[in-house]
């Protein structure tokens, strides 16, 4: 399983990670980006419902992927 994920990760470009972060990572855009709303809940101590935790993971994952790709590019 880890080898397969490594292959998928290596095939994703920085541009693709950026597009994922800007679309899935911010959707829905109005009234505020969803990931921002969940981060505010997290820092306020209100992130307790499982659906909110799932939302944070779902909308935060593209940003973590983008950060990892940029980190990898800078280290190379």
Assembly type of the chains comes to: single chain
The number of distinct helices, counting runs of at least 4 residues, comes to 4
Termini gap? 25 Å
Any idea what the radius of gyration is? 14 Å
Short description:
With 76 residues, the chain is mainly α. It is 75% helix and 0% strand.
Structural notes for this entry:
The protein has one domain (2-75). The model has no long low-confidence stretch (mean pLDDT 89). The chain has helices at 2-11, 14-23, 34-44, 50-75. The protein is mainly alpha-helical. Helix 2 packs antiparallel against helix 4 (50-75) and helix 3 crosses helix 4 (50-75).
Give descriptors for this structure.
76 residues; elongated
Helix-strand layout with pairing:
Elements: H1 2-11, H2 14-23, H3 34-44, H4 50-75
Helix pairs in contact: 2-4, 3-4
């Amino acid at each position: 399983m880890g080898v397969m994920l490594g292959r998928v990760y290596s095939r994703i470009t920085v541009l693709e990670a950026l597009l994922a972060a800007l679309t899935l990572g911010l959707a829905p855009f109005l009234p505020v980006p969803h990931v921002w709303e969940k981060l505010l809940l997290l820092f306020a101590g209100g992130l307790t419902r499982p659906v909110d935790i799932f939302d944070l993971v779902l909308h935060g994952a593209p940003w973590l992927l983008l950060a990892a790709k940029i980190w990898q590019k800078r280290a190379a």
